[in-house]
């Protein structure tokens, strides 16, 4: 389980910090792709306003129950509420941004 801190906020320090959790299973192609895509989207749209936690279920399988993880990779947005989940390698940027409610349709 790794926590990747976001770079310090450059602009609005009063903005809410997004808490994201990515569940993966080892270093599979889908898991690596999902993490790379997520980092890219966060840097483009949430720079300095996010906290990303990566949980490898091969190392910590017991953590899947808390967020009811049924497939991997799965991204869970903990904050801001409501909780949202996106399953897959996160390669469709528009669907990810809409799913996380970063961008509306």
UniProtKB/TrEMBL annotation:
Cited Pfam families: KaiB
One BP term from GO: rhythmic process
Residue intervals of the KaiB domain: 21-102
Name used for this protein in its record: Circadian clock protein KaiB
Native organism: Hymenobacter perfusus
